[in-house]
Amino acid sequence: MEQKAFPKIIMHMKQRFQRNENYPISLEEILDELQIIDLNTKSRFTLDTQMLCNNAKLETTTEDGVRKYTFKPKFSIRNRRDLINLIKEHQSKGLGGLLVDDVQESMTTEEFERVNKKLGENSDIVSMPGKGKKKVFFYNDTKSAENLQLDEEIVKYWRDVAVDGLDEKKIEEYLENKGITSMKDGLESKSQVPVGGKKKPSQRGRQSKKHNDHLGSLLTEYDPALKKASI
Fold first, then answer.
1. How far is the C-alpha of 54 from the C-alpha of 48, rounded, in Å?
2. Which has more confidence, 208 or 13?
3. How many CB atoms neighbour CB 112 within 10 A?
4. pLDDT of 46-75, one tens digit each?
């Protein structure tokens, strides 16, 4: 009997959580809400002391000596911001995204519907199929370089113009005529870089090292030839 009632109880507790009614209730209160009246004392005892209190999806507390239960979601997600932070954390650790089923189970129905309404290409949360065709939420960094969008006018000019055989001067003139000065500036800065990307070291002011300059006058004074000539 308890085996039949157990999955109904877990589902009921999950639904209470998703309705934002996750306050603690006893087994007797659960059975009353489910209108289960045919469980004998032994089955109730087994549920209360073994099956429910040891289940990972339920949190157990005791009030006035009575064991009470609340649903325990896989993740702690109160709103969209919590979800984004959790997905980013998982992806940064190389754990991938989050199963949509796990997210839905961890949020109230109202909050989960808000997330779904904002899904799309330009959203910071995207849904993609994962293993076993289960949907997975991923974080989509809309400000990353991969998602930068070029101006359609620039793309059009780039596709239309033929640059084969044109030097930089001709390309600059074309871009300037089209009013695209920022790209022209990029070409100018590039043209100022010397070939090879390195400057030759300046030779200005370079001196070779001299040795024993201070001995010059002494050597002259004691030169035997000079001394002999002076006599």
1. 9
2. 13
3. 19
4. 999 999 999 999 999 999 999 999 999 999
Copy the structure tokens of residue 175: 């871009």
Question: What's the CA gap between 3 and 195, in Å, rounded?
Answer: 80
What DSSP assignment string belongs to the chain? -HHHHHHHHHHHHHHHHHTT----EEHHHHHHHHT-----HHHHHHIIIIITTT-TTEEEEEETTEEEEEE--SS---SHHHHHHHHHHHHHTT---EEHHHHHHTS-HHHHHHHHHT-STTSSEEEEE-GGG-EEEEE--TTSGGG----HHHHHHHHH---TT--HHHHHHHHHHTT-HHHHHHHHHHHTSPTTS-PPPP-TT--PPP--GGGHHHHHHT-HHHHHHH-
Q: What band does 13 get if pLDDT is binned at 50, 70 and 90?
A: very high
Q: Which two tokens stand for residue 92?
A: 């940064």
User: Alpha-carbon distance 86 to 141, whole Å?
Assistant: 14
Nearest to 17 by CA among 79, 77, 72: 72
The encoded tokens of residue 62 equal 């005791």
Question: Which residues have C-beta within 8 Å of that of residue 168, sequence separation ≥ 6?
Answer: 187, 191
